[in-house]
Write a structure and sequence with these properties.
about 180 residues; alpha+beta; 6-stranded antiparallel sheet
Length: about 180
C-alpha cells in the first residue's frame, strides 16, 4: 500500500511540474508577443505619421509675397479628423494648424529622437497621441537664376494611439488563446 502511494506522489509531481513548465512557457510567449507586437505596430504607426507629416509639408507653398515667405495651403489636405498638426516657418511664425488643436506649447514628454524626427507622447482631450516633430524645407521661386530661396519648415503631426493598442491587444489575445 505504501509503495502505491509513493508512485502516485511521483506521478503527481511530474504532472504538476509539466503543467508548471507549460504555464511558464505560455506566460513567456504572451509577454514576448506583447513586446514584439508593440514594437512592430508602433514602427508601422511611425511610418504612417511620417507620411502624413510629409503630406502636410507638401502643402507648404510660396506665399507669392515680396519677402518670399511660405504659407500652408490647407485646401487640399485630406487628413483623418482626429489627427492634429501645426506648421511653423524658420522665423517661428505659425503657418497653420488643425482646428482641433491649440498647439504644442510645451514639450509633452521626453522626445525620442529618430532619423525621421522627434516623437512625443501627449494627452489631448483625454486621448493619448503620438506626435512627430519633423524638419523640412521648401524652395521658393526655383526658376530664379540662383535656384530660388531655401525656407526651413517645422511640422508637428500627431494621431491618437487607441487603434494601435487595440490591434496589439488583439494580437496578444490570439497568442494567449493559442498557448
Amino acid at each position: 500500500m505504501r509503495l502505491a502511494l509513493q508512485q502516485r506522489s511521483i506521478a503527481f509531481r511530474l504532472i504538476a511540474a509539466v503543467l508548471a513548465v507549460e504555464l511558464v512557457s505560455a506566460i513567456a510567449v504572451i509577454f514576448l508577443s506583447l513586446g514584439y507586437e508593440r514594437h512592430t505596430h508602433f514602427i508601422a504607426f511611425d511610418v504612417s505619421l511620417r507620411g502624413r507629416a510629409d503630406s502636410v509639408l507638401g502643402a507648404v507653398q510660396d506665399a507669392e509675397d515680396a519677402e518670399d515667405n511660405v504659407m500652408l495651403n490647407q485646401a487640399d489636405l485630406h487628413l483623418p479628423p482626429d489627427d492634429v498638426y501645426e506648421v511653423f516657418d524658420q522665423k517661428g511664425r505659425l503657418l497653420g494648424r488643425s482646428p482641433n488643436w491649440q498647439g504644442m506649447a510645451s514639450t509633452p514628454s521626453k522626445p525620442s529622437d529618430t532619423p525621421h524626427g522627434k516623437f512625443f507622447r501627449m494627452v489631448l482631450n483625454g486621448r493619448h497621441y503620438r506626435v512627430l516633430q519633423a524638419h523640412g524645407s521648401r524652395i521658393v521661386d526655383p526658376a530664379e537664376p540662383r535656384g530660388g530661396k531655401l525656407r526651413q519648415v517645422i511640422v508637428a503631426y500627431g494621431a491618437p494611439t487607441e487603434h494601435v493598442w487595440h490591434a496589439i491587444r488583439g494580437s496578444v489575445e490570439f497568442y494567449a488563446a493559442g498557448s
